[in-house]
Amino acid sequence: MAGAFDFAPAIALLPFGSFLVALFLGQYMPKRGALAGIIATVGSLLLSAWVALTVAGGETYNEPVYTFVAMGENPIQFGLLLDQLSALMLVIVSLIAVLVHVFSLGYMNDEGETGLPRYYGELGLFTASMLAFVMSSNLLMAFMFFELVGLCSYLLIGFWFRRDGPPSAAKKAFLVTRFGDYFFLIGVVAVFATFGTAQFAGEESFPHLAELALSGEGQVTTMFGLGAEAWFTVVGLLILGGVMGKSAQFPFHTWLPDAMEGPTPVSALIHAATMVAAGVYLVARIYGFYALLPTALAVIALVGGFTALFAATMGVVKREIKQVLAYSTISQYGYIMLALGGGGYVAGVFHLTTHAVFKALLFLGAGSVIIAMHHNENMWDMGGLKDKMPVTYYAFLSGSLALAGIVPFSGFWSKDEVLYETLVHGIGTDGGLGVVLLLAYAMGLIAVFFTGFYTFRMVLLTFHGKPRSDTARNPHGVHWNVKGPLAVLGVLAATVGAINLVPVHALVGSVPEFLHDWLYYGPEMLNGHHYHELITAGEFGGMSAGELPGLGETGTLFASAGISLTVALAGSALAIALYRGDSPVEHTDRLGSAKTVLFNNYYQDEYQVWLAQGLTMNVARAADKFDQGVVDGVVNGVSSVSLFGGSRVRRIQTGIVSNYATLLTLGLVALLVGIGLMGGWF
Amino acid sequence: MLQTLQISGTAALAPTLVLGVTALLLLLIDSIDPEESSSALLSGVATLGSLVALAAAGAILVATGGEPQSLFQGQLVVDGMSLFFTFIFTSVTTLVTLASYDYLKEFRYKAEFYTLVMLAATGMTLMASSNSMATAFVSLELASLPSYALVAFLKNNRGSVEAGLKYFLIGALSSAVFVYGISLVYGVTGSLQFDAIASELGNTGEGLVGVLGVGILMIIGGFAFKTASVPFHWWAPEAYEGAPAPVSAFLSSASKAAGFVIAFRVFTVAFPQSTVGVDWVLAFQVLALVTMTLGNFAAATQENVKRMMAYSSIGHAGYVLIALGALTGSANQAFVLGAGMIHLVVYGFMNTGAFLFIALAEYWGVGRTFEDYNGLAKQAPVACVAMTVFLFSLAGLPIGGGFLSKFFLIAAAVEAATIGTYVLAFALVINSALSLFYYSRVVKAMWIEDPVGDFEVGGYPTGLYAAIIVAAVATFLLLPALGLFTNVAVDAAASMIQ
């Protein structure tokens, strides 16, 4: 009987169909292709939910769908891997995609934008690529769709290509992520060269082969004379290059704030469910590989913790609402990386889930505000929108509380678990890894303060106080197609944390930890339980869980939650103290010279521009010299030889048929004599 | 999976019969009213006939699963290999007859043209099924004789007539060499049937290896003529240039594939490398190397687009010869042959398409040199996109199936892991790089250069356009969809090699 898995390819094919329909027929359709997109993504959502239910029933699926190159024992295939992780991600991505499509009706159609068929076409392709990426059963297929996701975000960020900003932002996003993907590509090749396969799951999967090789039961090819573990770490870090580019981790984060030039619903999709999520999803997907490599884990945790703090500080001084959200995205993905590096697989996926919900909400909320403000994004021109747009306000507030990590909103539960996992593994693990985890934890904890601060600064400046401009006094109304998605996400942002109430479970055992159970009982070698074993095994991850002195396990859990909540409240309280009242004023001058540094984003762009122009340009010039002189010289030499040879050949073709007959016969005789002499016939 | 069905002898030959009957039907239609023959009717019947044959070949392949069916006491055999090639022949024939609708509008004797094409196609499908030297020779002649007439079809054009005559003379010489080779092999083994020859090989007398070797090399000569390989290639540049462009398309794609299918069968079934004692693999290695190098080098210096395509077609014959030159003992033989078959499928579409674009240019009265194509993209963007796809796919860029099929050939040659095959793989890479140079000259002329004079294209002929676009779409789709063909090809090759 045909089950959910037989229809699974349609999850990605439906939005792909909407891409074709919107692109070619959108011009002739009401709403210019939006309906096709909505129908397709709703279809994907329903199918994803069906797949998730089937997976919940204990079935998983890992089969090839199409063989691309059938060669040797390890053919290059497209396949589907549907397990707990990918089923969860499918639901998230298709849910956000539906809401973004609906919201676009209000943001794009009602605002009278042109080029809508292109917009909806690209949106469909974007969704399709992400869904296919999520379902990928091997690294090469994942890489292909990873690149498609990158291409689509390039197209969408540059949607308003006639203005000055968007094309340049799109190019920047493309180039910076491409720089990371370059390492990823080498990583894919290295995985093939090392293991001969790039499968994610099964007995013949590369994480499993790596596990066998490290425990001395299998043989793999390593390069450059490195030992198995050192080489695997190199491979893991190469793949991590692509992850850091896509998930905007330091130092590849610079593209993301500029990407705000795209339409706001696109920002919601990029930040919550597609482009940026793709990076960390990949780490979760091959967690069985990273869990073997303590050095790689340390790098992931450190990069994550540092990015969380670094980006949060930049978010503090921004004037545009979307800029604040952009830095908060970078910071939040830092937390997810921190969790994965700190041995908290479930915590990382949990934060990915809650973040997808509340960040989509915040972006759509910001989009609603931007519609109301006639596309003015400066928060200092807003104020007082609370009474004019209550639905947007309450939804946005729900998302903000989640982002700041205030109990009981979803972000609190997940961020708390991220910090808790890192803390206990940092305490319990000996040696350098433990120290790194504690350092990363400290950075993550300080970032909580800044998160609370910038979040409430944003809420207060946007919605509270007195209106500070004419547009804020008379905002443009928004329709159901804007309010609907906001309401759905507002409720979810408040409640979705309930899927994994770890502290409550510790207190009252009967409250279930749904997500924990869900991820722990996946297919063999693909579940949280297995990852936990790897992480804690001495020969692999080498972590162990500790506790704060004198508090015991539960005590540590509550102490950690208490600390992070206190810090979040402190940050929020500072923001409220500074920016409450009818006419808040800028306090950035108090920061002194730090203000300039923060406004300039720590001069990250400047040094990258210098890298591109000062350094790369000179290297390119030198390479050009070499190319012009040596390579071209050789090529020109070869081509003049071949042209000369070619003209000789031309001359033999005299056009006289008796010459041909002679040459034909002579050629045959030469062949006969040559082969005959070698074969000893005469 | 469908069950393997037993198909009776006549039914298994359905594609051949359909093509033959279509040829006769065309003559019948023409005899009713020779002066007022309708172009649409004739082209339609011919296209329909080849489509039916195409469908029949597919249906038989699905129904029998490529299981060999021996017919007429083993004179003919219908198996995966022959059906696979029938697919190529009928596809090319369909495209050519469709395109000829517009091309031939102004000419007389249209019915004769289509009949000859159909008869040649019949001969080709018979070549694919031939299982003895006698049927091989007869079917080769059945494919060749109509071709001579087709090349000389433009009776009032000196170039066409001269090309036809040269083609015929070289063809006669080559047939003589071929049939002499057959007689020598018959003299040594005492049989004509391929499997019987193979079983007699072990019993040849001590002194007869030389005679057998000369015979085998002469048979290679016969196939080299059909595939336009060195040193039997002399006719090709002239015939392709002089012939009407659809005929050039037909000859360079289908006729070449026919030469290869019979060569594949003869050399794997009748002269298996393990028992024959004659190093024909080396001969094919030499021929492949010389053919691809000569074809590409000569193509690089041409001024005339059609003649450039003629030499490029010689170069591609050299690439496919790798499939025979890499059949060493160490090779994965099914994969090697399969790679050659796959290249011929892709080549069937991309090369036919390119020649049909030249037919379109001739239809418009555009000149023949590179300069005459300048700025054509401004007037006919769709056709020029199609031509760009053909040319880049021919060069092996990943815009069409040509990229993967060349990759398979390289992989097959490298896997065979002998010095000779490494040289072949290297030569393929070098020659492909060189070919990119001359293919992109056409692309540059079409898209970048400004038109020389103010030239207006005269209309957009439906049939030609349809054929070109179908070929372009097929070329493009063969990149992702080549996986569908690889299994069929490798299975067919494997079952023939045993």
Automatic annotation (TrEMBL), chain A:
UniProt KW keywords: Membrane, Transmembrane, Transmembrane helix
Bilayer disposition of the protein: Multi-pass membrane protein
Gene3D superfamilies the UniProt entry points to: 1.20.5.2700
Pfam families per record: Proton_antipo_M (PF00361), Proton_antipo_N (PF00662)
Domain of life: Archaea
Keyword Membrane attributed: yes
Record's subcellular location: Membrane
InterPro entries in the cross-refs: NADHpl_OxRdtase_5_subgr (IPR018393), ND/Mrp_TM (IPR001750), NU5C-like (IPR003945), Proton_antipo_N (IPR001516)
The keyword tRNA-binding belongs to this UniProt entry's keyword annotation: no
Transmembrane segments: 6-26, 33-53, 85-107, 119-136, 142-161, 182-202, 222-245, 266-284, 290-312, 324-350, 356-373, 393-413, 433-456, 486-508, 557-579, 660-681
Domain NADH-Ubiquinone oxidoreductase (complex I) chain 5 N-terminal: from-to ranges: 70-120
Residue ranges that the Swiss-Prot or TrEMBL entry lists as coiled coil: none
NADH:quinone oxidoreductase/Mrp antiporter transmembrane domain segment(s): 136-422
One GO cellular component term noted in the UniProt record for this chain: membrane
Cited NCBIfam families: NDH_I_L, PRK06590.1
Name this protein carries in UniProt: NADH-quinone oxidoreductase subunit L
Protein's organism: Halomarina rubra
UniProtKB/TrEMBL annotation, chain B:
Keywords: Membrane, Transmembrane, Transmembrane helix
Range of residues in the leader sequence: none
Subcellular compartments: Membrane
Protein name: NADH-quinone oxidoreductase subunit N
Domain of life: Archaea
Source species of the chain: Halomarina rubra
Membrane topology reported for the UniProt record: Multi-pass membrane protein
Domain NADH:quinone oxidoreductase/Mrp antiporter transmembrane: 130-430
One GO CC term on file: membrane
NCBIfam families, alphabetized: NDH_I_N
Entry's transmembrane regions: 12-29, 41-63, 83-101, 113-130, 167-188, 208-225, 280-302, 334-360, 380-400, 407-430, 464-490
Principal subcellular localization: membrane
